Every structure is written in structure tokens, then in C-alpha cells.
Amino acid sequence: MSLRPSVIKLYKTLLHLGRDYPQGYDYFRTRLKASFMKNKDVTDPKTIEKLIARGEFVVKEIEALYMLKKYRTLKRRYYDK
Length: 81
What we know:
Elements: H1 4-17, H2 25-38, H3 45-79
Helix pairs in contact: 1-3
């Protein structure tokens, strides 16, 4: 069983989420690429699965960050005095 498609899917998902990153897409993309390149030589399937799980956690955290940002914007828009 190859884990390569899972890694590519995670990378694409993170790239897509990076478009709305507060510090800019270029900043996010360079950091993302660096973190993936740092682990490019990992061959142990257990380690790769741990790294994928960590990446999926980061996806959830970024989504939560965006949801909070949208919520605060809406709250400010309608309830600011």
C-alpha cells in the first residue's frame, strides 16, 4: 500500500487552505514546501502515517482559525456599538 497519494492529497489541501492565510499565500507556500521537503527522505510507513496524521491536525487547526476569523468579522459587523 502506497502512502504517496495521501501525502499528495494532504499537500494540495494545505495549499488550498493557504490562499486565505493571514500572512499571505507566498509565506504559507514557502513554509509548507520547506516542511514537506524536510521529511522527503522518510521511508518508514509508520512514521509517514504519523506525519500525515499531524498534517491532518494542522488542516483542522487552520480551518478552525478561519471559522473563528469569519465569526469575529460577522460579530463585529452586526453587534459593534
